[in-house]
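---------- Forwarded message ----------

FYI, see the LexA repressor record below. Original note from H. follows.
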Amino acid sequence: MGGVRKQNQNGLTDKEQRIYDFIVEEQERVGYPPSIREICEYMGLKSTSSAHGYLVTLEEKGLIKRDPTKPRALEIISNKTEQCKIIHAPIIGDVAAGTPILANQNVDGYCPLPAEDFGQKDVYMLRVHGDSMINVGIYDGDKVIVESCDTAENGDIVVALVDDSATVKRFFKENGRYRLQPENDNMPPMYFDQVMIQGKVIGLLRTM
């Protein structure tokens, strides 16, 4: 059995990415894409059939269009590359959306997110337990997308650290103390003299 070829965040192997980058660079440099033989020379490929194989793969992945009857008929689908760019947000521990539980800072894995939406932000994800935020559609088992920060405005939904435990609540500063407000009509607010903001909830991922 052959080994599994490693792919990057765009779903390309190293050679596929190098060939695609070369096509883009040549298109920008001289105004037209490279020929099959030029791709072979650039990549050190001995057979033009190998280059053809890579081009077929790039076409199947939606990155280029080609006309096999013409030597340089490669069309770059540039917006596709932007759409397929992703970041991998770490999934960190668990967060109680009911009674706070001890914060676990171990990374349990990574979750792909579109770079177009989250690429400029320092984000991570936390699993939610409990039903204290159901009024805003955050349910037990959801993963919240969190922008890392240490400040918040009144009304923000935050990840707050209280007595070394993390919880997801709506944040308010009032009368010299902090109120962490559940979004559940059956749960009372929580008041603290000090809280540490770990981030603001900016999104939600639910696995059906």
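H. also flagged this: The domain at 86-205 is CATH 2.10.109.10 (Umud Fragment, subunit A).
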